[in-house]
Amino acid sequence: MGRTLPSATQIMQQDEAALARFRRALRRSDQLVLDDLFNAAQKHLSAAAYAANILPFESFLLSMLLEEHKEVLRLRESVENLQKRHD
Amino acid sequence: MLAQNPDNLSLPAPQRGKISLVVAPRGVSGKMMTMLATLALHGKVLVIDGGNRFDAYALSRELRQRTVEVYAALNRVILSRVFTCYQMTATLSQLPLDGTPVVILDLLGTFLDESVAFGKRRYLLNNSLGRLRQIAASAPVALWARTRTTPTDEDQKLLPLVLEVASDLWELQDAEVPDYQLPLF
Amino acid sequence: MIEFDGWLLDLFEDEKEGVVLYFMDREGPRWRLTTPFPVTFYAQGESEQLRALWRMLRTLPQVTDIHRTQRMDVFRRQWVPVLAATVQNPVTLQPLIQKVVARFPKLEYSDADISITVRFAAQTGATPLSYCHVVADEATHKLKDIEVLESAWEMTPRPIPFRRLYLSPSGDPNHGRPRYLRVIYGKHENRYLLSDMQNVLVCLRATLKRVDPDLIITGWGDTWLLPLLVEKSKEYQIPLPLNRETGRDILLKKELTYFSYGQIIYRGQQVHLFGRCHLDRRNAMLWSDYDLEGTIESSRVTSLPLQIAARVSPGTGISSIEMLTALREQVLVPYQKQQAEYFKPVADLYSADQGGIVYQPLIGLHRNVGMIDFTSMYPAVMVYFNLSPETILPNGMNGTPVPALGITIDNSREGLVPKALRPLLEKRIALKKRLAMQKVWYPPERERIEHRASALKWLLVVCFGYLGYKNARFGRIEAHQAVTAYGREAMMQAKEAAEDMGCEVIQMYVDGLWVQRPDWSQPADFEALLLEIEERTGLPIALDGVYRWIVFVGSRGNKARPVANRYFGVFQDGSIKVRGIDARRRDATPFVKETQLHLLELLARHDDPFDGLGQAVKYLRGQVRTLRSGKVPLADLLVRQRLGRKLEAYRTLSPAARAAFQLKAVGKEQHPGQRVAFLFTLGKPGVHAWDLPERPDPESVDLARYETLLIRAAGIVLEAFGLDEKELERLMKTDLKQLGLIRV
Asked: Is residue B127 part of a domain?
């Protein structure tokens, strides 16, 4: 019906494809970590879509950072708990 | 001038007084967006999309590689999407003759609609092409006629009419155009 | 003087009499009345051209009136001067229009191709199947007066005493010639061997005369039965009064295939009758959803005649309602849609060109989740925010701004589309409330109301899409975009309200939210949230139910990737809801579907689904055993896939395409858009089309492949509870008791 823009999922795929050369040159183990970053960004596709940024990759980067930080907070809490138990 | 172009060649910007025609399959939309990006850097561009081929994100990516003022450039690309041959003809007839470059994506897309009688479609196409000639007198005009993998009989009857108005012709085959195959989900 | 109360059964144009009408008198008789019915079309454009048109029309005998007048052009948003031309007989309109358009292609035409039932409804208020008071002349049978007693918006219309005749072949003609024809009316059932066609025809003729049905309901009547009967009737010279109207043949509409939005759609052949209605159960759009009652509702509300209402998509119904409203409001109905999108800077496209909000759900099991959704959100947005093609103001004009888009709305008058939809929306909401309030009801009555509500729902569901449809008379992309913009805004406000009240939002999908708060488990708990959302958004919202538990499933290709619409769960009342997985897919194998559903039922029986795992695994083993032993009937192993394109267009053949080739070889052509049924078989070509004349050898069925499909389907259900596909495969191979993990 009149919609021209691809879905957020498709845009992410296009951005992943645009990074193909960069990814290729990475070591295999690093490639897997990069893939993981993209999986993390997957979780916030709806926010990226709603933001309707003309450069969506910026929204994806922010999503990756968001998930990274969640992990940091979680680990921080785990470490604190472990320390408490030790004392 | 017919040319078979390798993958990394870009389409030149159209020039005033001539109609540039690109005859190519769907994958050439990326190159069309690149051409639009070049035009948008310098001023307003009018785009009519006859087949839902406009790739906004490709355009913004291309612009980003050329300027920081992406938003301002995007604001200079003025788009109208048409879904029937009547709409294409009406839209063209209402375009001002003020020298603004005009780019048409998938010109024949709306003319392959079997629910409209062929004679009527041909009449409307000739009408549209006539208008484009008028516009080209004072503005650069670029047309993209999309080729399909299984061309219909009518494709083959209407394309020659478009070929007739073109002064510059770029014809790209399937193999030379990157076909963006998105995975299924 | 003829005077009676009754229902308008059929209405059609006639080149001598104008319009012919068939009525069902509530006392019993059936009336054929006529009335002259002149129709008018309009032309607008440059004065010179209009004058030339006037001169041409003046010379034509079929044109009885030409005059200048004013009409509302909703796309120019003003009254415009037009030339109005009237023809005495409606049959002459189409040929005249062709002539006029060819001669004066630069003029714009309106009201040139509106169906006769819409025109009649606009003039008299009487839509097909409305209950009216009718007065006619005794001698000429000409209609004198018609007054509608029950409008289309009547909540509980009088049931219509149709005389029905059912014609069913004894089997599916696609699978081989049926042996006999079943003929049912009232309490009588007769069977006639189809090998003796003459007998069939003679008996059927007698039946038609005796019963004089209003409805003929068939199986495969459009595609096989009626065309066959008509052909044989000519061959044997035994006239068959399928039409009530004499002097006319039945109307045969040929099959066609067309391309729409990238999909190929196939429409089968159709047989329409005059003076009676023919409904083919196998070819009726949404028959399984809402049956005859819903079709009647659709016909009344849209003013499409019953035979057409049964066969077309709801989009045609919406178009009809819009045209009816336009005629009533003196708004021009454009002949060839020319209104294209306004030119807009691409920068605006990004925020405008979106659909509804679709979240990625949190995959896995969740408990006590409330599902709330806006009631008919898009139609409600269209009606309450006044969104219509003509209420969208061009760039820069003053009006009510639309959230996040660069456009504004003219709220100084009600738009055409909101005006057309408002009664539809209000009736649907009223019916839903009725159904919710009166839980205890005489079941057939409840079912009738549900079917009516369903017909209205379908119309409402498509009206939004229709706003953006390229061939819609009253469509405009910007209006479509404004609707989704308001919709997204409403969803965001709902999410914020939920989070402000301490809920977690598990999932959002266009017009619905799944919300959870640890201490909320009863419907009453969610009341405050519903009120808050209605307050903030101005749109009605309701609680669909509270899930005891719900599982969101990942995508088919990648289980870790969240997908919007694949889930299953159990409500508080024990009922199960499933979306997107095999149990709900039309192309899924019945055996697999049934297994998956039953697994869900086993889990649903316990308050805690984990308690049902043991039974589930035991049941699954039983199903695997049955499959392996060859005891599953072949019909239950059928796969039904759509053929996406013409056979020649396939580069690598899909299973459906391979089956279609098999059918082609025996002369059964399959069209793109049709579903092909087949079995997976061992070796090449790997499929056996079901509609081939010979049944496949049961030994050739690829049972291993079906077992994989079965376990995969079971895995989808049980994975959230710790048993994924791999684990299930392992369990199928080992003895449960030995593991000691699961109590059997």
From this structure: yes
Specify the number of domains making up chain B.
1
Would the CB atoms of C360 and A53 count as touching at under 8 Å?
no
Domain containing B30 — which CATH number? 3.40.50.300
As given in the structure block, the two tokens for residue C262 are 């990238």
Which phi and psi angles does A62 have, rounded to 5°? -65, -40
Structural domain that includes position C678: 617-739
Give the range with max mean pLDDT: C353-357, C416-420, C673-677: C416-420
Question: Which residue type, as a one-letter code, is found at position B175?
Answer: A
Please count the residues of chain B: 185
Contact A4 B49 (CB under 8 A): yes
The whole-number average pLDDT for the span B173-177 is: 60
Contacts of B75 in chain A (CB under 8 A): none
Q: Where are the alpha helices (DSSP H) in C501-526?
A: none
Q: Enter the tokens of residue C301.
A: 């509300």
Percentage of chain C exceeding pLDDT 70 = 95
* 0.80 surpassed by pTM: no
Q: Report the CATH number that the domain containing residue C693 is assigned in CATH.
A: 1.10.132.60
For residue C192, what are the CA distances in angstroms to C200, C218, C239?
Answer: 6, 15, 18
Query: What are the backbone dihedrals phi and psi of residue B21, each rounded to the nearest 5 degrees, phi first?
Result: -120, 130
**Residues in chain A within 8 Å Cβ distance of C357:** 46, 50
Of B85-89, B179-183, C697-701, the poorest mean pLDDT is in: B179-183
Number of domains in chain C: 2
Whether C11 and C128 have beta carbons less than 8 Å apart is answered as yes
CA dist., res. C494 & res. C516, Å (int): 13
Q: Is the dihedral of CA C32, C33, C36, C37 positive or negative?
A: negative
Chain B residues with CB under 8 Å of A5 CB are: 56-57
B123/C contact by beta carbon, under 8 A: yes
Bridge partners for C554 per DSSP: C562
- Break chain A into its structural domains and give their ranges: 8-86
Query: In the numeric block, which tokens belong to residue C76?
Result: 């120019």
Nearest to B64 among A5, A13, A55 (CB): A55
The residue behind tokens 């003196």 is C330
Confidence of residue B174 (pLDDT cuts 50, 70, 90): low
At residue C731, the pLDDT reads: 83
Residue C258's pLDDT is: 64
Quote the crossing angle between the two packed helices C93-103 and C47-58, to the nearest 10°.
140
> Does any domain span residue B61?
yes
- Nearest-angstrom CA–CA distance, C326 and C320: 10
